[in-house]
Write a structure and sequence with these properties.
This protein has about 200 residues and is an alpha+beta fold. It contains four helices and 13 strands. The chain has one domain: Pnp Oxidase, Chain A (Roll), CATH 2.30.110.10. The strands form four sheets. Strands 2-1-5-8-9-4-3 form a seven-stranded antiparallel beta sheet, with helices on one face. Strands 6-7 form a two-stranded antiparallel sheet. The protein starts with 12 loop residues before the first helix and ends in an 11-residue tail after the last strand.
Length: about 200
């Protein structure tokens, strides 16, 4: 079958793409407003985009009303955000952070997560996250109703037990990230890995 995302099937683009382009990593993104109030929101339209300089991209859409989400408003204010990666241990709390709370209300407190200070950006990282990326906004690209916020990664916090600094490899047995699957309620575990060597 063929879907025309520029015509007859345009209104179904999200469901088609979000169901097929999987698994997607989840960026539980923390920001602060100009009063220092914390916001936390998960985005699965997210990935690492490069390493020289190290950059990531998050794609927060708008609310159904067309208004920008709190994450966008806060990044516009101070150009900083933290991407907290999500593992199985904090999956439920990540989901709780997606609740529609009033602007300025702290999703971390709502979800039972702990704010921890960062080194070079104002927004906090999440203490329970297996890894957190301190980011400064580099560029925001708006295409129609889409928004891509590119952030330069300034610092990376990693839980001690999941990273081997001799090999620079993550330890699969200690790191259990989850991935986003089909909308609205499907996720996956990453415990069934296999190795496939690339040709020389």
């Amino acid at each position: 079958m063929i879907f025309d995302l520029t015509g007859a099937h345009q209104e179904h683009a999200y469901m088609i793409l979000a169901g097929l382009v999987t698994p997607r990593p989840i960026a539980l993104t923390t920001t602060v407003d100009d009063e220092g109030r914390i916001n936390a929101a998960p985005f699965s339209f997210f990935n690492v985009l490069g390493d020289s300089p190290p950059i990531v991209g998050i794609c927060p859409g708008n609310r159904p009303s067309g208004e920008a989400k709190d994450t966008v408003l806060n990044i516009r204010l101070n150009h900083e955000f933290v991407v907290n990666l999500v593992d199985e241990a904090i999956a439920q709390q990540m989901s709780a952070c997606s609740a529609s709370l009033p602007y300025g209300e702290n999703e971390l407190a709502h979800a039972g997560l702990t704010a921890a200070p960062c080194e070079v950006v104002k927004p906090p990282r999440i203490a329970e996250a297996p890894a957190s990326l301190e980011c400064r906004q580099h560029t925001t690209v708006e295409i129609g109703g889409n928004r891509l916020i590119i952030g330069e990664v300034l610092r990376v916090h990693v839980r001690d037990d999941i990273f081997d600094t001799e090999t620079w490899l993550v330890k699969p047995s200690a790191y259990a990230p989850i991935g986003r699957m089909q909308s609205p309620n499907y996720y996956c575990r990453t415990t069934d890995m296999f190795e496939m060597r690339r040709p020389k």
